[in-house]
Amino acid sequence: MCLRLLGRAPTNLGDGVIRISWLRETFDQLPPSASPDTTEQFARAYALSLLGGVLFPDRSGGSIHLQYLLLVEDWRRAGRFAWGAAVLSHMYREMGRSTLHMTQSSSLGGDLGG
Question: Residue 57 contacts by C-beta under 8 Å, 6 or more apart in sequence?
């Protein structure tokens, strides 16, 4: 999938995630004589780094799951997604996960009873 959509793949592709640092290093500068296919691959890499680093960050802070690459495969289809709702949903899910790790009890606000 990486080869097809990005034109290259990282050597240490583990657990279906790509390091954002690899994306930024590999797709740092678009060559001046880039073909339309190469330009599209660089655009996908940039979009993928935004998705993983800005819109859908997780606790790892430095990687993004390959599932997001499929979202930017077709630009026309990607333009029809409800990105705002997806980002909001992701933010709430991550906040909930963080809260669960910070509390000992199963209730969101902690154990208020006696």
Answer: 94
Q: Are 47 and 72 within 8 A, CB to CB? A: yes
The span from the CA of 114 to the CA of 79, in Å, is 52
> Which pTM value belongs to this model?
0.74
Residue 103: closest CA among 88, 91, 95: 95
For the chain, give the secondary structure using H, E and C: CHHHHHCCCCCCCCCCEEEHHHHHHHCCCCCCCCCHHHHHHHHHHHHHHHHHHHHCCCCCCCEEECHHHHHCCCHHHHCCCCHHHHHHHHHHHHHHHHHHHHCCCCCCCCCCCC
User: Cα torsion at 26, 30, 31, 33 (round to 10°)?
Assistant: 140
Give mean pLDDT in consecutive 10-residue pieces for the chain, a chain of 114 residues. Answer: 90 81 90 94 92 78 83 87 88 80 51 46
- Token pair for residue 17? 């995630």
